Amino acid sequence: PYEEIPSPTLFGFLKEFGPFGKYKDATIYDISCRMREMYGSIMRMKGEFGREDIVMTFNPEDFEKVFRTEGVWPRRTGMDAFVYYRKQQRPEYFKGYGGLLAEQGEAWHKMRTIVNPIMMQPKIIKLYTDKVDEVAREFIGMVDGMRDEKHELPADFNEWLNRWALETMGVLVLDTRLGVLNKEQSAEAQKLVRLTKDAMSLFFYLDIMPSMWRKIKTPGFYRLMRTLDELYIMIGSKIDEAVVRMEKNPNASSDTLSILEKLLKVDRNAAFTMSLDSLFAGVDTTSSGSIGILYCLANNPEKQDKLREELRKILPDKNTPLTTENMKNMPYLRACIKEGLRMYPPTAGNGRCVGKDLVIQGYRIPKGTLVVMGQLVLQRQEGQFTRPSEYLPERWLTGPEAAGCPSAKEAHPFVYMPFGFGARTCIGRRLAMMEMEILVSRLIRQYHVRWNYGEIKFRASVVNVPTTDLKFELKDVQD
User: Fold this and answer.
1) Residue 33 annotated as lining a ligand binding site
2) Is 257 exposed, middle or buried (0-12, 13-18, 19+ CB in 10 A)?
3) pLDDT score at 321
4) pLDDT at position 456 over 80
5) For 305-335, how does the pLDDT look when each residue is reduced to its tens digit (9 = 90+)?
6) Any idea what the CATH number is for the domain that residue 329 is in?
7) Overall domain count for the chain
8) At residue 8, does pLDDT exceed 90?
9) 37 found inside a domain
10) Average pLDDT of 151-161?
């Protein structure tokens, strides 16, 4: 029976993993391993304070079963405060478009049907490569001036990576430069950085950690509502500016229209909602993923050198522009990114509400139950990937370069899914990969990157956030 799934009490969970618990400073990976050790390959987190139960599994056969039975309208819960804001606090702002993060069922499918042809097409990359590269090159220029006398970056480099991701997202979904990379930031840029950071932090404490806001509206809940109101005004003004630009050029070819312009042709509210969703879903995830990749390359200089040799063929000069064409033949770069995301993914796994009653490991899981799949643990332990603690980009290659290296194909196909699976796979995965490819290319072509401070640590938030100061050592590449 469902009730017999191993389950910690709320007190027991907080005693182990809460802010003052035994493992309060542990990494998300260590916490996941400890939970598996304590409760086995399946466990149930009982719903508290109005939140529904969560079942967590560490079995790849379960992952496949959940994904294969999710139905035509996959459900994924866990952002209740976000849903409350759009459905109850400010429904007049969204007018039927709750967005991909908040909607479920037919309403989600309606939004996804609008967005898929716009954001999932390979040709969308062609429109943005030069713009994303421009932001990356500006960021590299800033990084150059951040280094101290030991060639190390400042402790708050994570904040600057978040700003790079935010500035890039402004280009991708708002058709504008937000100005958050400028040394002399405008008051508006400073406010935008603060609001996006506050929103993600509040989401974590309200929806991921145990919170009473569903029963009693807490100070954190009211703060989030105010934060989202302010973000609505700021993003809305950027949408209005885009509308004015479109009106000045009404006959533009559909091939040259941006993501935002194409969405605006469908509906302004759809465009606004998707832009807001992209800021929430695409900033912290991209910067977190980039940190893990850079850390792996910094600790594996021979892999970094091999990548740099590939980059030299594409970028004979450090300032050679990156284009859609010259980025086509970069297999080792993509292998480096895949391997970095295997070892340090932005999240610990995927989650889905089961589409029908299922039996998992002998337990009956009722339809609609949220199942979280602990993929991070399996990605970094024996049993799926040979030599899992080693950074081996070659495992993702085929042909002579992969000779003598274990293949990623050894793993169960549902273990490694950094962008999810099926109809609800990440809508921005092509854009996210492009962002990381361009940033890593620029940094590795420009610098020898080293890490001198032991293992990097990440804590759990909406995405995995580094708690280690990111004092990467960057020394100039001489050619």
Assistant:
1) no
2) middle
3) 94
4) yes
5) 999 999 999 999 999 999 999 999 999 999 9
6) 1.10.630.10
7) 1
8) no
9) no
10) 96
User: For residue 231, is it within any domain?
Assistant: yes
Per-residue pLDDT, 186: 87
Q: How crowded is residue 278: how many other Cβ atoms within 10 Å of its Cβ? A: 25
Which positions ≥6 away from 409 have C-beta within 8 Å? none
Structural domain for 270, as ranges: 71-347+418-476
Write the CA distances from 313 to 226, 302, 306, 327, 478, integer angstroms: 50, 18, 12, 11, 15
Query: What is the Cα–Cα distance from 407 to 144, expressed in whole angstroms?
Result: 37
Distance separating alpha carbons of residues 234 and 267, to the nearest angstrom:
19
Six-digit token string for 225: 């509502």
Domain membership of residue 253 (yes or no) is yes
| Nearest one of 281, 308, 295 to 342, comparing CA atoms | 295
Instruction: With respect to residue 376, please indicate whether it lies within any of the assigned structural domains.
Output: no
As a whole number of angstroms, the distance between CA 14 and CA 101 comes to 28
Spell out the residues 6+ positions from residue 419 whose beta carbon is closer than 8 angstroms to its own. 425, 426, 429, 432
Question: Cα 475 vs. chain centroid, distance in angstroms?
Answer: 28
Model confidence at 462: pLDDT above 90: no
Q: Which amino acid would we find at residue 468?
A: T
Which residue stretches of 399-456 are H helix? 429-446
The dihedrals phi and psi of 458, each to the nearest 5 degrees, come to -120, 140
Instruction: Check: CB of residue 119 under 8 Å from CB of residue 259.
Output: yes
**pTM of the full predicted structure?**
0.94
Average of per-residue pLDDT across 181-205: 90
